[in-house]
Each structure stands twice: as C-alpha cells, then as structure tokens.
Amino acid sequence: MPTTAAGRASARRRTTTPDRTSGDAPRSTRAVTALAVLLAVVLPAVPALGHASSQLPHARWAADGTEVELHWTAAADDVADVAVAAGLWPEEVMWAYVEGETDQQPTSGEIAALRDEPDLHDYLLDRFEVRQDGERCPAEPVLSDDVISDGLRMQFSCAEPVTVATLDVRVLHDRDPAYRTFSVDGTEQYAVHTYDQPEHTWDFTRAASGTGIPPQLWMAGAAVLLAGAAVWVLMGRRRSMAGTRR
C-alpha cells in the first residue's frame, strides 16, 4: 500500500476517474455563501476581518533596520500547490485539499520534510524578491514544520535601513496566471501582485510611524477583499485549473 503523498495520489489515479468539475462547484458555492455571511458580519463589526481574510493569499511585510520579514499565508490547497510548483508533490495532493479528501493528503512527517527541501527554497527565492535601489536583497526561507497551517516565511537582508523597497511576488503564477497575492503591513497600504503586475513599490515608513488603519478603511477594505476573493474563486484559479485536470 502507498505510504507517501505521491504514492497515495498514484493509487487514486488508478482507482478513480477524476471529475473535472467536482472540486470546483462545492468550493465556489462555499465562497459565495461565505461572502454573503462575512459581509454581513464584517461591515458592522470590524474585528471580524481577521477571520475573513485568513483564506485569502496574502503577504504581510515588516521591516526592522536593514531586515525585511515576509509572512505569506493562503488556503491549504494553495500552500500545497507551492510544493507542487517546486516539483515535490504531485498535483493530486493539491486537489485532495480542495476536495477535503484527508486520506489523500500528506502526513505530518511529509509536510515537515518540506522545511529543508532545497527545491522548495529555490522556488521561494525565485518567486519572492525585495529590491532596494534596484539591488536585490539576499533572502533566506525560514519555514516551520507545518507550512500548510503556518504558511511561508522569508527573511531579507538589505544593504541599508529599509524605508522604500520594491516587492516582487510571483508565487504560483507559473501554475496559473490568474493567481494573485495581496500585500499588507497593518496600515492602509496594500498591493495586489498579479501575473501582469508582480512588482509594487512599498513604503515601510508607514508601518514604522505606528499609523494604523482607520475603521472606515477596514470596513471598506473588508468588502473589497471579500468580493475579490469570491470573484477569484468563482472565475479565476480553480476554474482554469479544473479545465486542465485529466
């Protein structure tokens, strides 16, 4: 019997016939339902935004002197897809998370093994960049034993104290051009990294000044992000990937 994620995925291919739409419709339905519920909750109650945005692919940035920290989080299937893109897991593992098939998902040991995988490190170094005055800041992935739950972390070391830098995020654009990541830092500043526009200039002094997000912007941002999440799920990544599933 197969004991690895790749083995279980191979066994599944031999015993099942993939349904090209079965993984998409339930997720889309859940997204629409969640959008309606969350908008009703978030708009009158700002703190609920933290829960609403937790499944959006987003990168949170922070700078301290010459160091820049990145924390990228997303839904479990998206994080699994990073391992697929790095050539470490078969695509069926990503679909196992989409469809909630726990018996096809990697074990905790298999997930922990990703932490020190050179291929994953190389992929992240190629897909996340911070540039200061046009020069790329050296980076190092700092991963936990459970990247599925904890997301991906990276540390960048720049030559000078960081005030303004260029953020280049191209994670999973090779898997699907519709993929996008939202960058945030706890202020009103945000950016959306797309296939066509992966680079954005970032002002780290806003966060350093301690200026938080006004309640009105939190509420407006919640509506925009949630609506964008529903559109992304319904019209973006899953539908295009479902069309390639064989």
What features would you describe in this structure?
The protein is elongated. The chain contains 10 helices and 10 strands. It has one domain (5-9, 19-242). Strand 1 (58-64) and strand 2 form a beta hairpin. Strands 5-6-2-1-8-9 form a 6-stranded mixed sheet. A 4-stranded antiparallel sheet has the order 4-3-7-10. It is an alpha+beta fold and 246 residues long. The chain is 42% helix and 20% strand. The protein starts with a helix and ends with a helix. Helix 2 (24-42) runs antiparallel to helix 10.
List keywords for this structure.
single chain, 10 helices, six-stranded mixed beta sheet, four-stranded antiparallel beta sheet, 20% strand, alpha+beta
Shape: elongated
Low-confidence stretches: 10-54
- What is the spatial order of strands in the main beta sheet? 5-6-2-1-8-9
User: What is the chain-wise order of helices and strands?
Assistant: HHHEEHHHHEEEHEEEEEHH
Fraction of residues in helices? 40-55%
Number of strands: 10
Strand content: 15-25%
The biggest beta sheet, please? 6 strands, mixed
Q: From the helix content, strand content and strand pairing, which structural class follows?
A: alpha+beta
Radius of gyration: 19 Å
User: What is the mean predicted local confidence, pLDDT?
Assistant: 77
> Number of helical runs?
10
Distance between the termini: 23 Å
**Into how many domains do the coordinates divide?**
1
